[in-house]
Structure formats: structure tokens, C-alpha cells
Amino acid sequence: MFQKTVETLAKTATKDLKHFKGIHAHIIKSHHNTFIYNNMIRGYVKTNSPMPAILCYLDMLNYGLIANNYTFPPLIKACTLIVHSMKCTGCLVHAHVVKFGFYDDPFVASTLIEFYSSVLDMATARRLFDGVAKRDVVLWTSMVDGYGKVGDVESARALFDEMPDRNVVSWSAMMAGYSRVSDFREVLCLFRQMQEACVKPNESVLVSAATACSHLGALAQGQWVHSYAKLQYSLESNAILATAIVDMHAKCGCIEAALSVFEGIARKDGGAWNAIISGVAMNSGARKSIELFNRMVAIGAQPNETTFVTILTACTHSGLVEKGLSLFKQMETVYNVKPRSEHFACIVDLLARSGMLEDAEKFIEEHMGEFDSRDANVWGALLGACRVHGKVEVGNRIWKKLASAGFVDCGIYMTLYNMYKEAGWEIEAKSVRRMLIEMGLKKKPGCSLIEVNGVVDEFIAGDLSHPKAGEISETLISLFNTMNFLILI
User: Fold this and answer.
1) What are the Cα distances from residue 376, in Å, to 96, 384, 438, 480?
2) Cβ atoms < 10 Å from Cβ of 99
């Protein structure tokens, strides 16, 4: 009866941690067996209490009890939770796994792989994987997920393609890996392959697909994801999935649809508020985004760093200088959010775009101790404004400061070159161009995306690899000629 009580509490430990600890104290006095200790360890991990879980294991060993294959998966998860402060603990548990002979158990191995991927040690994870004779789908998926988490999508995909069996979690792990490296076209490609394989997508897959549609502007596919999610899952109760749908609609320019989904979310977390505030601001609705921000704080939701980047950017693009400065001052004093370099860059951009270059420069000098003085966003915002407002002398003075500090950033050099070129400062422009060549700095080429019949095509500046590049070029020339003819008449 007592063992059954412990097992039940372990499954619902998050609801009654105090009671659970009381049961643990009772175990020490009167009950000692591996089954109960295993449940105690699992219960502590479920309450996000890794240290008590590890101490519970040590207590178990002190009583001479032998660990089994059910002991190690939750214990290793506890080590993963504290890995950034006590990596050696996980390695010691791994040694115990080997000592007790469970190194080739698929469940134990999969949690060890998760542990080593969290410390970016995929070489050890791979040796573990290769050492297991009977690999189940969980083990394969753990390895794919591990490679994805460290950004090695090539190795992840190679394993994914080799998998004898895949479940929805396997597809989700691979799609998440591509999403982490911003290969959103491949995310949607996998999503289509998954549908062709008749695998029902789970919520995680739909979040990855919606996020990919957001970045690619693939509205048709995004609407399909929305419809499917609405039919199969409750968007009102799933804030993460609903937020991804809100973000997708907003980035595709469908702000009304985004607002509709947002208003339907029962419990709006910070991510949902950030998505709608950002989406409204992106669609030239600065005042509306400020209204949403006020609603957010009025109901007690806590804005974070991302919220303020979004709202300050909205103020910048709408020229709301006083409001932006007021919000910046309230960040730390009212909302307890410490400004970071991104927020300083927003204020510099806000002042500079409004032609207040001297104020922007003064702002940087006053806050120089608050952030890295070489931050490209801050200096890029100021130099960009100097170019727009034709303040070449101010831009030249700022550049001299950066040059003396050994500043190297391709974007800054390009802004400087264009500023000099447009102002007729040919000698200075040639000097900057020469420095770009000598340092081997190259501007990242621009790209555009277009969705046709549910397929997204990407076009990169100067790239003629598209199979219909010739026809596209001829069509563009024809359009330009037509426009010029219409202008003339």
C-alpha cells in the first residue's frame, strides 16, 4: 500500500511537493527498497528538483540498495538539469551506468545522449549510440535531436534518413533542428514529406511549420496549418501553438487574422503578447501596439526584454520620440527590466531617425558603460541616420572614433561607403572600399521569397541558379521597359 502511495505521488509530484518530501522522510525511517527510491527520484525530477533527486540516489546507495535500469533515466535527467553548474555529476552517474551494466539499455542510453548533447559533447553521445546493439526509435530520435540542438543538421539528417522506423517525435526533432539553423524551406519540405508518409502532426510539428511559414511568408501553407490546428487541437488552451499562428499571420500581413487568434487565447502569456505587439507594429500600427502594451501591463502580465525591443522599434518607425524615451526610462524603474544593447540601439535609432543626431551621440556617451561600445546595432543606427540626413561631418567624426578602436563590421563599412559616395566624398569612399577588399569583408546578399502554388522560391541577389532564371530576367526587363514607356507618355 505504501509503495502504491509513493508511485501515485511521484506521478503527481508537481501538485504536492511538500507532501512528497514528507513521504521521503518517512522512507528514511522505515522503508528501503529500490522500487520506492526510483519513484522518489522520478518525483523530484518532475518537480524540477534535481539536487534532491541526486541526494535520494546517494541515500539509496548508502543503504546498500542496487540500482536498476529504471533508476538511471530520471537520475540522468536530474543531471541534465544541473549540467551547467555540475557537469561532473552526470559523468559520475554515467560511470555508475557502466558499473551496473546498463550502458546498452536503450532508455538509459537515450537519456545519456540527451545529457551529453546538453553539454555539446556529441562525440561521446555518438559513441554511446554506436555501442547499443538494439536501437529503438527513442534512441534514434534522441541522437537526431542531439545533433539538431548543437546545430549539426547534416549529421542529424543523415541519421534521420537511416532510421528504420520514425514516429511523429522523430519528425518533430528533425524539423526543430532545421528551424534552429533558420533553414525554414527544409522545415516545410519535411512537413510535406511527413504528410505524404501519413504521419499525423503533433503540436510541436505544427509550431515548427507555422514558424517556417512566418519566416518565408508562405501564407497559403500557414493558413493550412492554422486550419488543421484549429480542427485537431484547442488553440484557446495551447498558448505556444496559438502564438506561432499569431506570429505567422502577422508576418504574412494578415493582422486581423492574427488579432482574432490572439483574442481567442484563454491564458495569454508573455510570448503571445510579444507576438501580437510585434505583429501590429510591423504592420504600421505603432499606436495600436502601444495600446496592446498598456493592456498587457494592466492585466498584470510582465513585459520582458523582447517586449521593449518591439515597442521601442514601433515608436522609432512612427517617430514617437517622447513616448519611446518615456518607455525606455520606465523599463528598469517601473518594470524591473534592465536595458541591454538592443534597447540602447533602439533609442539611438529613435533619436537619429528624427534628426536628433547630437542627442543620439550624447546618449551613447552617457551610456557607454552600459554596453559594449563596439555594438554594431548602435553605431549602425547612428551612421545610417547620418547618411539619411546628410550629416557627413558628424558621420565622419564618429567613424574616426570607431576606426581608432579597431572596429570591424561589414554593415558599418557599407553604410559609411554609401554615405561618402552620396555626399560626393569620392576619396573617402574609395578608401573605405579599399579597406573592405583588403579585409575580405563581403556584404550578405539580399534575397526575396515568393510563394506559388504552395511552393516557396527564394531568389538571392546575383544568383542565376534558378532553372527559370533566364525567363524571369526577360520578364523583368519587359516590365521595366513598359513602366518607362508609361512614364514617358
Assistant:
1) 48, 11, 20, 36
2) 10
pLDDT digits (tens, 9 = 90+) for 326-351: 999 999 999 999 998 889 888 988 99
Task: Please report where in the chains the cell 501564407 appears, as a residue.
Answer: 219
Q: What pLDDT, on a 0 to 100 scale, did the predictor assign at position 460?
A: 66
* Coil/strand/helix, residue 452: strand
Q: How many CA atoms lie within 13 A of 40 on its CB side?
A: 30
Q: CA-to-CA distance for 345 and 309, rounded, in angstroms?
A: 9
pLDDT top residue among 163 and 384: 163
- Which cell numbers in the block locate residue 38? 526510483
Q: What pLDDT was estimated at residue 90?
A: 87
Give the model's pLDDT for residue 10: 47
Neighbours of 469 (CB within 10 A): 12
- Inform me whether the pLDDT recorded for 133 exceeds 50: yes
Residue 487 half-sphere exposure, CB side, CA atoms within 13 Å? 6
C-alpha 29/C-alpha 317 separation (Å) is 66
- Contact between residue 139 and residue 129 where contact means Cβ atoms under 8 Å apart: yes
Residue 408 pLDDT: 65
**Single-letter residue type at 182:** S
User: All 3 cell numbers of residue 475?
Assistant: 520578364
Closest CA to 339 of 302, 377, 370, 316: 370
CA distance 248 to 284: 17
Q: Crossing angle of helices 17-30/50-62, nearest 10°?
A: 10
Which has the closest alpha carbon to 38: 86, 81, 84, 3? Answer: 3
Q: Cβ distance 139 to 159 under 8 Å?
A: no
